[in-house]
Amino acid sequence: MKKFSTLFLMAGMLMIMGCGGSGGNSSGSGKVSGEVYTSEVMSVLVPKGWKAFPGLVAGTIDEFREDQVAIHKGAKQAIDQLDTPGIVINYFPQAKYARTPGKTWYDNVSDIAPFTMGNYEWEGFTGSISNRKCAIFWTTNADELFQVVAWLEYDGKKISLDDADVKALIASISTK
Predict the structure, then answer these.
(1) pTM (2 decimals)?
(2) What does pLDDT average to over the chain?
(3) What angle do CA 68, 122, 67 make, to 5 degrees?
(4) Radius of gyration over alpha carbons of the chain, in Å?
């Protein structure tokens, strides 16, 4: 039941992110190895020890979205997204039609100083929802828009925006 509730919560947050719209530091890729996840619209580095899962079309279990990917550290199969820290990336080809996420959905909100990483400038905030720490950030210098939710902590497993693999992942986000 706990995993179902968490899945429902995550699905709701992704829908909110899709309807509506954090910082850190500089370029950050370093010497992180992994494979590149590529869809029809975007690509991103999936560091070694992480696994990528394409987003699902709402209401389906086998139709995938090209504009969303979830990448989780330590995940082996899709169900592992429910109890591993990870990063969900949403892509909107026309930024003017997307809204940035509202802070009112989160507890313990703190702004992140704007930062540049990879090809983009980012801004956002950290917070928590149902006692799950997260960072929400989005691009600010492009015609298209990326919105990112980093689920920072699950059951003692943690990632940080300062981790080399997280920096490399964020720095690698690009459109095709």
Answers:
(1) 0.80
(2) 83
(3) 10
(4) 15
